[in-house]
Amino acid sequence: MTAIDRELTSTELPVDGTEMLSPELQRLAAEVRTFADEVVAPASYEYDTARRLPLDIIREMGRMGLFGLPLPTEYDGQGKTYMHLCVAVEQLARVDQSIAVTLEAGLGLGAMPIYRFGTEEQRRTYLPSLARGEHLAAFGLTEAGAGSDAGATKTSATLEDGWWTIDGTKQFITNSGTPITSVVTVTAVTGEVERRDGSRGPELSTIIVPVPIDGFTALPAYDKVGWHTSDTHPLVFDGVKVPEGNLLGERGRGFANFLSILDEGRVAFAALCVGAAQGCLEQAVDYAKRRVVFGKPIGDNQHIAFTIARMQARVAGARAVMHDAARRIDAGIPFTKEASLAKLIASEAAMANAADATQIWGGYGFMNENVVARHYRDSRILTLGEGSTEVQLAIIAKQLGFEKSFG
């Protein structure tokens, strides 16, 4: 049985924030929430301390159908919507951001480029095992000198006698070095193009690299401030050779394609942020009701109650803009501005709620075994990953007609 098959019982209330969603989405939220609370949360501190991705949990998520939610059934997916993915990511992120980003990046950045831009042969080769959660995919974009400025990419791919030869390095790549990583999609310079002003610039293309493969190395994992369970590595491509047919999409369309993928990814990333903000809210409410100081629960103090009310307001606002962006994806209408709005608002809500929850928990909120402390550490990356706050502001400004705001 997949996560969307179970019926809600007559006495079971919808999960907070899903009351206006369809019954199917409510069932999904309830099922993933139960899994998060009963399976992910109890193991979270152990895996965080070990800094190891729990493959048993990832495989169970695959059996639930989570890694195939928005992928068509012909590729072993669930044939559902992007909203389904966002609902699942949110519920996981309440208790463990690392597990949530493994799903978000594995699908939104790993599998979706192949689904959106791949040939039928590429889809049938790679998507089924990704949809089943048996393998993970990574998206190799960021470099030491090319993050927000992806046009500064230095990784190159040269075509000769029907083979691409790839040389270069990538940084901060999620899901790139796990025992079940099967493919890394790489942006690379494949030539030069003439710009509108007559100048010459790099031609960026995207190429599928199945791994392991000769010349590919996932260097030791980063020692990160947070997201300890999430797999993140620098990558080296030293003369990696793949067939010409591994080009993903049209040659020279890599820049446009990855912008499209990042727009989608930001919506699922916003769902992760909403989940983190919701998790902090729940922890603050629970502790404020049972922590007694000077003879009364701390929640009886107006300052604490108002702080928690503001946390609720942040969650509600962030979830609303995230749902709006997800609906736009599913409706096939433009969503670039809405994706950036969702990512901007939700990431700042998660950071603020993590700080408030830690303050409410006091000393206990500073202990790593407490999920609040892990949210405090983990949430710092949320205003940086998949486009920094400054990038989101520039995109929104550009969408409003301020063309020169972005590079």
Automatic annotation (TrEMBL):
Q: Does the keyword Oxidoreductase apply?
A: yes
Tell me which cofactor or cofactors this protein depends on.
Answer: FAD
Tell me which residues make up the Acyl-CoA oxidase/dehydrogenase middle domain: 138-240
Indicate the segments forming the Acyl-CoA dehydrogenase/oxidase N-terminal domain, all copies: 23-134
Ranges of residues in domain Acyl-CoA dehydrogenase/oxidase C-terminal: 252-400
The UniProt keywords, alphabetically, are:
FAD, Flavoprotein, Oxidoreductase
What Pfam families does its record include?
A: Acyl-CoA_dh_1 (PF00441), Acyl-CoA_dh_M (PF02770), Acyl-CoA_dh_N (PF02771)
Which superkingdom heads the taxonomic lineage of this protein's source?
Bacteria
Q: Which family does it belong to?
A: Belongs to the acyl-CoA dehydrogenase family.
Per its record, how is this protein called by name?
Acyl-CoA dehydrogenase family protein
Q: Which organism is it from?
A: Agrococcus versicolor
Q: What is the lineage of its organism?
A: Bacteria, Bacillati, Actinomycetota, Actinomycetes, Micrococcales
